[in-house]
Amino acid sequence: MTIHDLSVIDHPEWFDRRFSAWYRYLLPRLSATARLVITDSNYSKIRIMRAFRISDNKICVIPCGVDTHFFRPRSHLEQAAIRRKYGLLDPYILFAGSLEPRKNLDRLLRAFSKIERDFAPFRLAIAGAQAGTFRKLELPAVPPRVQWLGYVEDGDLPALYSAARAFIQPSVYEGFGLTVLEAMACGVPVIAAQSTSLPEVAGDAALLVDPFNVEEIAKAVSDVLGSEDLHDALIRKGLERTRSFSWDRTADLVWEALMRVRGS
User: Tens of pLDDT along 105-116?
Assistant: First the structure.
């Protein structure tokens, strides 16, 4: 079986009550009888071992990948078209993901409110919709230069990433963090939370911040927007980082793991 993360175990308060109760019942029982548990990160492996008392040799870490043929820097024409489609007339910083408590949008909004005057006309563009499995998201007062894009089709994401001045993923909990790799592959500097699995994925190719520190989040955004050297260095490191993560490699590792189980 595959368990991407244990957020429903570690933070049931983030989820719909029935959804949380079902998975808290199901996951320990399935993992106890499975011959192999695959997970996305070392962080998730440690959490699964501790929560379900599973031995180390029963869990295999296989990272996700990024399709660099699809997620790649897009042309100025494609960027201009996507900005027109979503009404992004000003330069913007991008967040992309489901609107749920662990994404830490409340602190991101507070951080942006501290710097928006200094970096006008930049906007914070938030792409994503709320999923029914999560409890209703409570947010603080929204700064005026925040633009809600709603659900974004997959085909629009590469150009939307490419046109951003920076991408930010401030989550307090992630089992992997695919959007970090997607943004890097599109040639965008990434700011990411120094929490759970995100440092494993980002390595030294992102500017890492304490997701609970609003001032630190604000400073990181200011640094990326204000320094061409930092901006360009993060782009170079991000493009290099994505070479270590491919879906072909992920598939090969899954196949090898299944063959080991079959032969045991």
Answer: 999 999 999 999
- Of 99, 105, 95, give the one whose Cα is nearest residue 132: 99
Distance CA 210, CA 196 (A): 11
Among 137, 174, 143, 166, CA closest to 231? 166
Task: Answer for the pair 11, 173: CB distance below 8 angstroms, yes or no.
Answer: yes
- 148: part of which helix (H) or strand (E)? strand 146-150
2: DSSP letter? B
pTM tops 0.85: yes
- C-alpha neighbours within 13 Å on the C-beta side of residue 80: 3
92 bridge partner residues:
123
Instruction: Give the three-class secondary structure for 64.
Output: coil
Residue closest to 201 by CA, chosen among 165, 240, 241: 241
DSSP class of residue 134? B
